[in-house]
Design brief:
Jelly Rolls, transit peptide, DH_E1, 16 helices, eight-stranded antiparallel sheet, EC 1.2.4.4, alpha+beta, potassium, Rossmann fold
């Protein structure tokens, strides 16, 4: 009879390609499977998430938004995994996957609309901030209840499998489901894995193990070898990956997707190891349950953004100038979208009763009327009854007349510019020189039916899009567009009420020779009876309401907008890039569209156009001080009466294959449209961090040097609201090796001797503090990796015993120490705590330890400590010559000795680089505490017997000791949910 002991099992290795310094540690894995442009796009997406997080966190603190959740430290998991998926794959998110959305084409405008719950929000403002979703991107909306998306993902994957059984011609698709290790403690997790395994569902479960479930650390959450070990218990192929290594995450996800679709399909579990360097949310203060220096060390030592940046710099595709440009342009774009979204009106209040049932119930109708009466009774408490009826479409200032604008004479006060618009003898110049440029101008007035003549010379350049548009606040739209790679055609298009996702079949091409070299007059004549597009006075297309898609004929007040944007920018989805003509080569620029002049006639009159109802029809629009003229005969257009209607797509214009921004499946959106608003806006002063008041949250600092091992130094650090360091000061007496800190306080170059750990508040080392030196003692033989231990100097600045250690390594055979030389401190104590994710096989390490501080020259007493068996509390402390017991049962005997070395100020923590482990059979090994292995290893179950592929280099896996392999109790309710979701999804797909 033999019981299996988890401590006797080998911990699952962690797959890694690139180390924390940006070096490729496994040369057999070539990250060059992706192009330089694609890698730069990943990096920019991670930067975008980081900058967005910083600004939105501060915005919530100022009351600009109600709630926010940060993804700092986990950007590589989201972006890397999403880069390996196809647009057809189905996604279930938790709430730290903004990178998945960006990678799939979700725009900052869409994100801001959701965060501000305005009328452009896909969810109509009904959900909490950060609860994104996108039908066109196959991303299910985030839900607040923890883990509910996991069984839903299993059900959806089963439906996809059944769909292919019914129709083998359907492209193979997988479901990717994201969640944290906290959600893995819910019963839904176990039910979902069980049904996915038994039904062989093509689903990839991606668990972000960031060390904390809100305030509960992994050590307190579960026993066992992390989350990955649970997959084996359900017979699921499983792998653990370094979540800070975007190359490793991408490769693992690509392989997982491939395996999920093999044969009869199967589920895959991926555990991505990271560290949550942010607070759980704006409702949380993580420094109440973890040390700030622990967070600072993680941010300095290892994070996915700086790791990839180091690799790109070594490869020569990135430098400091590009970094500054990227951060500046991204920050500018985020602030533009922030400012624009904050001003957009909210959805109608009545919308809270809609979209639940096909027919609104009598009870709901009664509640709607009660709300309406309440608003009418207390007008001072509500903006107006139109907030109930019309929602986001506020009254619009009317043009009510005709205007002629000559841009060759300079800027017009009738228009608001956004971005760098200049004026020459050729007119208004809209120039694109680099990523992020999208210059536009927009009229300050609206027309309600009318005529517009644009005199335009379109911009050349592959991937560059020139545009002249009429657009309403309620997203009615009539367009002219030109592609920089096509000098012979123009495109006409229209949209109604923002319906841009129904096939993109409304556009048409029209002959327009030499549109890049010559000015042409492009006209739109718009009445209630028809829309007519003309080029140089010749009608090329006309459309009546009956010829438009049902209910999509534009008929609400419109402003005039002109500008250019880069549809071929690498940040856009593949479909948008294809539609625009291909990738934009900015080095071939600049690219400029010229608008010489503009004539606009408003067929209606008055000073303001108001929405009187929710129908969205022109009959619901009223004029203040004038009248709505739907026929255009009251004020005839300068070019004469409107031409007669012809066909909806005349012979001169071929149907547009993908429409504006269609992807290869014809279903993507024009992510570059509408353009970013208000590009000229400077930084919003109220968004600047006010904590501390003297520094900005993105202050960049260059230190005077890094200390040598014998130099004394001090660090003064100020922190913003997220705990990011904003000011770092190093004593000038330190050595001259410079250390640069980027805008997040991460070091970009570090001295080889030591990386300082800053304390907050700043501390000055008092003489006589204890010094601890701990060294590994290797034994011959081989065995499994053993856990690390961390020395923490005792005293006022020492870390709590439960504080997780910072994993990492120092060179083999090198000891580490902390403290200062000085007077003798009798009976100084030492705490030994386990490192984050430590696990072991057999008995515990053999090591020597010295403790105490005497004046220089005193005698040294050193004792070797051999581990003993047994268990103990989380940690203990002891005076010299007594025993210290770690949480995993090992013991160390400490004795006093002088120390003459100084590494850092008191309170720093280190991880041993060399540890020995002895197995039950008596053999031993020396193992590095380096956290991740370098070989892809998957563990699967075949016929109930575990089969493990071991890595080529040993390592200590992340996580806690191995978990029992038996499956958790199954949830009948959750399994039923899986089947219901599967059948419903199948019916929709079929």
């Amino acid at each position: 009879m033999r019981f299996q002991n988890p401590a006797e099992e080998t911990a699952m290795p962690t797959y890694r390609i690139m180390d924390a310094d940006g070096n490729i540690v496994d040369n057999t894995r070539d990250p060059q499977s992706a192009s330089d442009e694609e890698i730069v796009r990943w990096y920019r997406n991670m930067l975008t998430i980081s900058i967005l997080d910083l600004l939105m966190f501060d915005a919530q603190r100022q009351g600009r938004t109600s709630f926010y959740m940060v993804s700092a430290g986990e950007e590589g998991i989201a972006v890397g995994s999403a880069s390996a998926l196809t647009p057809d794959d189905v996604i279930f998110l938790q709430y730290r996957e903004q990178g998945v959305l960006l990678q799939r084409g979700f725009t900052l405008k869409e994100m801001m609309s959701q965060l501000f719950a305005n009328k452009d929000d896909h969810g109509k403002g009904r959900n909490m901030p950060v609860h994104y979703g996108s039908g066109k991107l196959n991303v299910h909306t985030v839900s607040s209840p923890l883990a509910t998306q996991i069984p839903q993902a299993s059900g959806a994957a089963y439906a996809l499998k059944l769909q292919r059984l019914i129709n083998p011609n359907v492209p193979p698709r997988v479901v990717a489901c994201y969640f944290g290790e906290g959600a893995a403690s819910e019963g839904d997790f176990h039910a979902a894995l069980n049904i996915a395994a038994t039904k062989s569902c093509p689903v990839v479960f991606v668990c972000r193990n960031n060390g904390f479930a809100i305030s509960t650390s992994s050590i307190e959450q579960y026993k066992g070898d992390g989350i990955a070990s649970r997959g084996l218990g359900y017979g699921i192929d499983t792998i653990r990956v370094d979540g800070n290594d975007i190359f490793a995450v991408r490769e693992v996800m690509a392989e997982a997707r491939k395996r999920a679709l093999e044969g009869d399909c199967r589920p895959i579990l991926v555990e991505a190891m990271s560290y949550r360097v942010s607070h759980h949310s704006t409702s949380d203060d993580s420094f109440a349950y973890r040390a700030k220096r622990e967070v600072e060390e993680w941010k300095r030592r290892d994070n996915p953004i700086t790791r990839l940046r180091k690799w790109m710099e070594k490869k020569g595709i990135w430098d400091e100038d590009k970094e500054k440009e990227a951060r500046a342009s991204i920050r500018k774009e985020v602030l533009q979208e922030f400012s624009a979204a904050e001003k957009v009106k909210k959805p109608p209040l009545r919308a809270m009763f809609e979209d639940v049932y096909e027919e609104i119930t009598p009870e709901a109708r009664e509640q709607m009327q009660e709300l309406k009466r309440l608003i009418e009774k207390y007008p001072k408490e509500y903006s107006s009854i139109s907030q109930y009826e019309g929602g986001g479409c506020a009254p619009d200032p009317a043009l009510g007349r005709s205007v002629d604008i000559d841009f060759s004479s300079g800027a017009s006060s009738d228009f608001t510019p956004s971005g760098a618009v200049s004026y020459t003898s050729d007119g208004a110049a809209f120039t694109i020189s680099q990523h992020g440029d999208a210059p536009t101008i927009q009229s300050k007035w609206y027309i309600m039916f009318g005529h517009v003549d644009y005199v335009i010379k379109a911009s050349p350049g592959t991937g560059i899009v020139s545009a002249a548009v009429l657009q309403s606040d309620c997203l009615d739209e009539i367009d002219w567009e030109w592609l920089g790679g096509d000098d012979n055609q123009a495109q006409s298009n229209y949209f109604g009420k923002g319906q841009t996702t129904t096939g993109y079949n409304r556009g048409a091409y029209h002959g327009a020779p030499n549109n890049h070299e010559e000015f042409h007059t492009y006209s739109i004549d718009w009445t209630a009876d028809q829309i007519v597009w003309s080029i140089d006075g010749q009608t090329v297309r006309a459309m009546s309401p009956s010829q438009a898609e049902a209910g999509q004929f534009p008929q609400t007040p419109m402003f005039v907008k002109l500008g250019t944007w880069a549809g071929g920018d690498s940040s856009n989805p593949p479909g948008t890039i294809t539609w625009s003509g291909g990738p934009t080569d900015y080095s071939a620029g600049p690219f400029t569209m010229y608008v010489k002049s503009l004539h606009v006639t408003d067929y209606s009159s008055g000073s303001q156009y108001t929405y009187s109802g929710t129908s969205g029809t022109w009959q619901s629009i009223t004029s203040n001080g004038g009248q709505i003229n739907s026929q255009g005969d009251g004020v005839p257009p300068s070019s004469g009466s409107a031409p007669p209607a012809t066909s909806s797509v005349p012979n001169s214009g071929a149907p547009l294959a993908f429409g504006n921004g269609g992807d290869s499946s014809g279903s993507a959106t024009r992510t570059g449209w509408p353009w970013s608003g208000e590009a000229t806006a400077t930084i919003v002063s109220s968004l600047i961090s006010t904590f501390p008041p003297s520094s900005q949250s993105s202050s960049a600092v260059l230190s005077q040097g890094s200390p040598s091992a014998s130099a004394s130094f001090e660090i003064t650090t100020s922190y913003d609201q997220q705990g990011f360091p904003t000011v770092v000061t190093v004593n000038p007496a330190a050595s001259a090796t410079p250390t640069c800190f980027d805008t997040h306080g991460f070091p970009t170059a570090c001295a080889a001797t030591v990386v300082p750990v800053s304390n907050q508040p700043a501390t000055t080392q008092a003489p006589g503090q204890p010094t601890v030196t701990i060294s590994g003692t290797p034994n011959p033989g081989t065995a499994s990796p053993a856990p690390s231990s961390v020395g923490v100097a005792s005293g006022a600045s020492s870390a709590p015993a439960s504080s997780p250690a910072i994993s990492g390594s120092t060179p083999t055979g090198v000891s580490v120490s902390t403290g200062t030389t000085g007077n003798t401190v009798p009976n100084s104590s030492v705490s030994v705590v386990p490192s984050l994710g430590g696990s072991s096989t057999g008995t515990q390490p053999v090591a020597t330890a010295t403790s105490g501080v005497n004046s220089p020259g005193s005698s040294t007493n050193t004792a070797s400590a051999v581990p003993t068996s047994g268990t103990a509390p989380e940690s203990s402390s002891a005076t010299p010559s007594e025993t210290v017991i770690t949480s995993n049962g090992s013991t160390f005997t400490l004795s006093a000795t002088p120390s003459q070395s100084l590494v850092t100020t008191n309170g720093s923590t280190f991880t041993l680089s060399v540890i020995s482990s002895t197995t039950s059979a008596g053999s031993s090994t020396t193992a590095s505490t380096t956290r991740h292995s370098t070989t892809l290893s998957t563990t699967s179950h075949t016929s109930g017997r575990a089969s493990t592929t071991s890595p080529s280099s040993s390592s200590t896996a992340s996580g806690t000791p191995p978990a029992p392999s038996n499956a958790a109790a199954r949830s009948t309710t959750s399994k039923a949910i899986c089947l219901i979701v599967a059948m419903c999804t199948l019916l929709l797909l079929h």
